[in-house]
Amino acid sequence: MSKLDTLQKQLETVLGNRAAGLVRKLDEVTLTVSAADYLQVAKLLHDDPSLAFEQMIDLCGVDYSAYRDGEYEGQRFCVVTHLLSIKHNWRLRLKVFCPDDDFPMVSSITGIWTVANWFEREAFDLYGIIFDGHDDLRRLLTDYGFIGHPFRKDFPVTGHVEMRYDPEQKRVVYQPVTIEPRELTPRVIREENYGGLH
User: Fold this and answer.
1) Exposure pattern of 89-120 as b/e (b: 16+ CB <10 Å)?
2) What is the pTM of this model?
3) In the chain, N or C: fewer CB atoms in 10 Å?
4) What CATH number corresponds to the domain at position 42?
């Protein structure tokens, strides 16, 4: 029995019907759970000695709105967490979809893996995903006055506002974006004139 077979069996035994989906592909295991079971499953993954995922490696948000060229019909926002068990030397990808596309929210796992703190703040900042129970959920990468969530597929490429220093007011001001779209024409290099050689 391979290591992935053992992991899959342990996940099925410990989680039972809490595992909404369990996929093995490219020598990786992806576990999908419902938002209602997310926190309880995370605790089991961490605390159960047969799984022992002591470390959270990464957590990020995903916006599926343009997935498969718009043919995807599932929930829009997902939180993807990568876990590592040093004891068993195996990894797991944990996925949970936010049940409400208009107000995406899942439980915070900072009480289980404290390292999730800034990762959840990043997902909140960039995707607008709320982590219920997070003690300090505020923007991490964008400015305090930033409007919107820039990694959402419907966020405009140029953004909504820009900031600049106004010498008359002697402070930073926000204003609507003034960038005019332009077409970039690639520079054509002809061999006979390249590098000043004739």
Assistant:
1) ebbbbbbbbbeeeeebbbbbbbebbeebbebb
2) 0.81
3) C
4) 3.30.460.80
